[in-house]
Design brief:
alpha/beta, 8-stranded parallel beta barrel
Length: 308
């Protein structure tokens, strides 16, 4: 069976969801954003309705609107991955089936959140979703936000399901777990890094690429870093990593755990405004924007004259 990374590539960008000032989804800007990350060569695949897209703040119908909008805007240009995770198994199945009907390439399904199920509950949740669709499934492990971890033993059971083909591992919370995963999965299974700051570390542990929200701003550099590492040019890879790290660090100013509000600001500085996040997330402050602009200028992403 062909490895899923041969289909999806190395850099997978989860799109932010643009909002208008009244909080409604801005479908026109979403379509343009999807086209932009492709036109600039920032991504190999696009993820719609992931964490970066604030799916937990969207209704079921709004999530379907995202799927339809991006499919109509860029369908066929790059593989499309639908974020179909939900706290309830029933809703995750319904979203995954909708993505399949719309012609998506893969469904990315986050571990069930808030309810803190047992490992058996996590296994049964993913099994039910996988058995309800013909789409390949990318599991999504992000204990920082879900409150549960997909343990290696649970992954070992899940990979026996024929369409469970990949996992996005939020490496920052479990820096060595990618290695544990690599020990229990078959050769055709793909492990993607879910933390922009940990890509090189996960590549050395058997990872194949990254799911990177920040690549909507610096996707060319992320691709260049991975390519440098793969050809054995570690000095260039390290230099690019440290350069990008300054940007990623700037997304977590003021004690923010969630980088989405400042990522939105960075997209506004390097492309165009995508609106504020939905509450309870709060927009970037003037001080945060100033520091973000300083960093983007320092690493050469924006010119002095374009600073906010």
């Amino acid at each position: 069976m062909e490895k899923l990374d041969l289909v999806l590539g190395r850099v997978l960008i989860p799109l932010v969801t643009p909002f208008r000032d009244d909080g409604a989804v801005d479908v026109d800007t979403l379509a343009d954003l999807a086209r932009m990350v492709i036109d600039r060569g920032y991504c190999d695949s696009i993820i719609v309705g992931g964490t970066t897209g604030e799916f937990v703040s969207l209704s079921f119908e709004e999530r379907l609107t995202l799927f339809r909008t991006v499919r109509e805007a860029v369908g066929g240009r790059v593989p499309l991955i639908a974020g179909t995770g939900a706290a309830s198994t029933r809703e995750a199945i319904a979203l995954t089936r909708a993505a399949e009907e719309l012609g998506y390439t893969v469904a990315m399904v986050v571990a069930p959140f808030y309810q803190k199920p047992t490992q058996e509950g996590i296994y049964q949740h993913f099994r039910a979703v996988a058995e309800a669709t013909r789409l390949p499934i990318m599991l999504y492990n992000i204990p920082l936000f879900t409150g549960v971890n997909i343990e290696p033993s649970t992954l070992a059971a899940l990979v026996r399901l024929p369409n469970v083909r990949a996992i996005k591992e939020e490496a920052g919370i479990n820096p060595t777990q990618a290695s544990e995963f690599a020990l229990v999965v078959p050769p055709d299974f793909a492990v993607y890094c879910g933390d922009d700051t940990m890509v090189l570390q996960v590549l050395t542990q058997g990872g194949v690429g990254v799911v990177s929200g920040g690549s909507a701003v610096i996707g060319d550099r992320m691709k260049a870093m991975i390519e440098a590492y793969l050809r054995g040019d570690n000095a260039t890879a390290q230099a690019l990593h440290l350069q990008m790290y300054k940007f990623f660090r700037a997304l977590n100013q003021s004690g923010r755990v969630n980088p989405i509000p400042l990522l939105r600001a960075a997209i506004g500085m390097t492309w165009r405004e995508v609106g504020p996040p939905r509450p309870p997330l709060t927009p970037a402050t003037a001080e945060e924007k100033s520091e973000l602009a300083r960093v983007l200028t320092e690493i050469g992403v924006v010119d002095q004259g374009t600073r906010a």
